[in-house]
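Reopening this one. Same input as before:
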Amino acid sequence: MFKTATILATSLLAPLIGSYTVAQTLRPEDLAAAAALRDRALIDNTAFELVSSLTTEVGPRAAGSSGDPAAVEWAERKMRQLGFSNVRRMDVVVPHWVRGTATFAVREPYPQGMPVLALGGSIGTPDSGIEAEIVMVRDLATLAALAPGAVKDRIVFFNGPTERTPDGRGYGKAVQVRTQGPSAAAALGAIGVVIRSIGTSPNRFPHTGALSYNISAPRIPAVALSNPDADALERQVAAGKPVRVSMMLTARDLPQTLSANVIGEIPGTDSDAEIVVLGAHLDSWDPGTGALDDGAGVAITMTAAKLIKEMTPKPRRTIRVVLFANEEFGLSGSRAYADKIGEEFTRHAIGMEADLGAGPVLKLASRVPAELLPAIQAMQELLAPLGVEPGSNETNGGADIGPLRRLGMPLLGPQLDATHYFDVHHTANDTLAQVDPEHIRQASAVYAVSAYLAAQLPGSWGRLPTTPSPN
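Same output, byte for byte:
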């Protein structure tokens, strides 16, 4: 892993221009300024201070909760303190789901209680709870292959593990059980669902996260067990006796309410400047304080913009930070932003998102027209002393930037290291203690350099083919 002192020394020897083609796409003076920005960012503690402030002064901030408007007020105040311009709210209608309490216990053959979290959006049980025999399956395909009637009036236990990967692909493969599993089980007659947490922690912290009910199936209650408790439940099944469990949830939906995207800018020097978007989401789930998900992303994007504000020369394009409302439970903020910007979308040159923890950044990926890949190469070469390797030109950017990508906006994709991220993601353990100050400084440096050079590119970033929205 990198060390700040080593990076600062090595950076003096780093080449500013990788090839003749690169020199044509990014000017030497901009690359030199970006190198100075990179080194200054590595000794700037703004990002860690912002995460500390957000998690201490606001804490959990689920959509519709009291923490939601507090976070919006915090974001506006901090943007103004950092010297952002055009700080404003964009109103967003968000759901209001209340977690309530949840209990889960094995009744037979070996009685014991196990801590659980309700999946986001789950309905509650009757006041007396529900009790039934469980049917253990690995995943959706295993469930679909069962004999007709196999899960009728039973509780389905999805027991597939989440693979630990640095790029988050293991989570992407496993999470369908959480989002689709309750409706898939209900369609086959199940009365409840319990899942092995979609996470990699060996500790007794169950993971929450949104489910998605299908209107063609009944809604049934759903909870998550920690990995060690899922192991224990699996061992009871392996004993060969019927396993009977009970669960009780008081989760419920309340009427929708109003939240807001928070937007602030570092104006570009061009009179009709295009926009470089830096996105993160302001909301969080409620068991923890949302330090990694996504307080770190909020801090990284705000810090990157603040560092660029302090630069000479000033950016040619405008740097716009958008802190989106309600990513966790429906992407309300990003959908509203894409819907409301209208003709201004033509000014959106390129964007990136921070929503995979506090770093470090491992690779610089992109999704840009092929002829602009030399500019991406130049960025990566400038960031190589920080341990940043070349990435693909196939990044999706992130969930909140997705609606803009589907409209054709090119992307930069700094790949944050997710190796240990899913140990704490969506759990009570997502706290400031999980944020490494050195890692978040490196991540802020990568985002600042990438955004600044994106703002300085001569000509246009072009457009990508448009794609339909998934729903």
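So the earlier flakiness isn't reproducible anymore. For the record, The chain has a mean pLDDT of 93.
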